[in-house]
Request: fold
Amino acid sequence: MTTNDAGPDSWKRRAGELIAALEQKGHLADPSLRAAFTEVPRHLFVPDYLRIKLDENGFAVREGKVDRSDAEYYDAVYSDQALMTQTKPVEGQPDSFVWSSSSSMPSVMADMIEELEVQSGMSILESGTGTGYNAAILCHLLGDQAVTTIEIDPDLLREALERLDNLGYHPATDPAGRLHDRVLATHAVDHVPYDWIRWSKPGAVILTDLRPPSNTDIGAWLKLTVNSDGKTATGKLMPPRGYFMSARQVAEFADIGHQLPELTLEEHQARAEMMKDRETHLSPAVFQDEVYGLYFWRQSSDVWWGSQDEVIILNSSDGSWAQVQDGTVIMLGPRDLWTEVEQAYQRWQAAGEPDLSEWTVEVTADGRTLIDLPHR
Ligand SMILES: C[S@@+](CC[C@H](N)C(=O)[O-])C[C@H]1O[C@@H](n2cnc3c(N)ncnc32)[C@H](O)[C@@H]1O
Reply:
């Protein structure tokens, strides 16, 4: 494999243009990070990606693979785009799929590494090897002996390690082999996996995207410092500068989100007859405030919601359901989900609509992630 097979134009020119564009937008201030992005060829880590288009309902659908034989390939690889590289079927839903791996947006990769203030001499653990591109950037920056990368999907890991090997990088893959100064996750989590604390030195810094798996529209970046006891960590939330796919529990199946119960036609009819309605003054647009979305998720974590135009639909794990449109709530089931939203919103307003910087996060020695809302 060579590093100059970018068609008539060399990949280095394209990479240089991308880096200049990123610098103009305020990314890549650190010269050694800039050098890493200049010298590591992304196309060797993303030999192909999935072309996506939106269907008439606004849902993303796959439209085949793009590879080096396609005219658009090099432009896409050397642009500030996330490139989807793998999907997995959703259990029991043959027509559905979830995005299960990608090469992240270069600007987001750069921002995460800069936020971690990674310095020479540090050891770093990346969770979510994916294509291996981010691991290669870290290897260039710190030397491959400083980098450990882990990936839940053994096929992806094998391919990524082959690509890294082709460039002479041999990061470790055993996270317990040493204690790390930095942990960087390129997948989202809804709590901090306690292993990350176990694998870190006291004083280590951990950066991850915190996001409910069943509602990936809301989230925040979480930056934690491991306390001097080496067993607990304290952190803060910040506005997300990028958004990551949720962590999987198993390699084969990625969808750990909320699953609606399958109902028969009779059950649907019986439910329809039990529907109640009432008026509301609270607009579904309330969830456009991501911070309120997080606030609501922290207290009603089994409630899933999705909105389109002016309509919002909520479901909960016990089968309760609500739809809100034009000031009317239609609801069903044991819980009045929209009342939960309204009451949470009142508390949120009474607390002064606190922004993310005011929240506190603690990981306890028994492995719990406590995300506390400010009390005023
Ligand atoms: C956005 S992609 C990673 C991008 C990657 N760093 C790169 O440069 O190509 C997220 C990756 O996280 C992996 N992943 C998901 N859940 C995981 C878990 N629990 N542990 C480790 N890796 C996980 C996915 O399989 C996927 O490859």
Observations:
- The longest helix spans residues 11-24.
- Residues 100-104, 127-131, 133-134, 150-153, 156, 186-187, 244-245, 247-248 surround S-adenosylmethionine (CB under 6 Å).
